[in-house]
Amino acid sequence: MRSEHGWSFSMGSAYQFHSWRVFVIVCALPCVSSVVALTFMPESPRFLLEVGKHDEAWMILKLIHDTNMRARGQPEKVFSVNRIKTPKQIDELIEIESDTGTWYRRCFVRIRTELYGIWLTFMRCFNYPVRDNTIKLTIVWFTLSFGYYGLSVWFPDVIKHLQSNVLPIEKIEREKFSNFTVNLTIANELHIGAEYDNGRFLGIKFKSVTFKDSVFKDCTFKDVTSVNTYFKNCTFIDTVFDNTDFEPYKFIDSEFHNCLFFHNKTGCQITFDDDYSAYWIYFVNFLGTLAVLPGNIVSALLMDRIGRLTMLGGSMVLSGISCFFLWLGSSESMMVGVLCLYNGLTISAWNSLDVVTVELYPTDRRATGFGFLNALCKAAAVLGNLIFGSLVSFTKSIPILLASTVLVCGGLVGLRLPDTRTQVLM
């Protein structure tokens, strides 16, 4: 069904399945599809060799060879490998315990041995000859993730901050209002130390309104909707709230004396007409995501021509420079355009960084090193969100300059990595 909130349907009287929930489900479909697709992928030949399944490993290697030869136009070439070097088998202690120990003892020994093996492999990522590469990759992964996720997630708030600087805020201080009725829209106002006696707020819409240190006595709020509206350190006496969307988080350090709440509305009650910035959140994210597509195409075409390091370092430095221009942005359209350029450049850096990381580690440390750097990436993303989120409400300059500096520094470190374009994988 089509409603003022978009496409939606109801489940019971309270739960409204609005279009944003449909959007979340659609976004989850690729993840579900990936899980299904993984069931049809062959197992890693190295894992099969480690568990002693040599024939299955040989068949998968032959399949890879035949597929590559057909893609090169040489299907007549025969898979000629007759001998495969077998990796180290599972620790013998497990086999001994499987014959003599109880089931829980076997599980304990197996888990302990696996964790110890993982720790040893992780520490080998910091041994010669890959130690320097690990340190440099750690810096590049951290800076790219910190700058990219920190700024991208909070960029709609940067736009919102820019909009708030354009819209004037009317300040009302120490006013007294008695025996009044209001049934229109109130927007962009700050009420400080006001007193409202026997007032009726009927069918009203509050947009970016803040009441601070104010007193409401014998007032009625009926059929009220609000956007970015808060009551800070306010006092309500003998006040009735009927069919409003005032949820508890909108009352900050406020007191209620003999107040009544009826038919309180829950969930999202606003429309794009009520809060145009909500539209910008979706639209800006959509444009930023759309800009990733040309970045993926360009990086795929130029990766082998200009080299991984040139693309990695160049993309990070250029994205840092483009991020710097966000600081100079004076209009929404200009900032959105620079954001699209920024996302297109950073996705090229991500693609080249993935390739460089895989090619710099030998086979026995590749998965562990890549997994460690991905975990570091997530930690940097969380840290970036926390720092940028705390700063963007005060000023847009510091987050933008911070992201620009971090990306440029990370790109310069990336240029110092070894070139793997002509090397044979270890």
TrEMBL record:
Keyword Transmembrane helix: yes
Residue ranges annotated for the SV2A/B/C luminal domain, each copy included: 173-261
Family: Belongs to the major facilitator superfamily.
Keyword Cell cycle: no
Keywords per UniProt: Glycoprotein, Membrane, Transmembrane, Transmembrane helix, Transport
Listed name of the protein: SV2A/B/C luminal domain-containing protein
Natural source organism: Felis catus
Membrane-protein topology: Multi-pass membrane protein
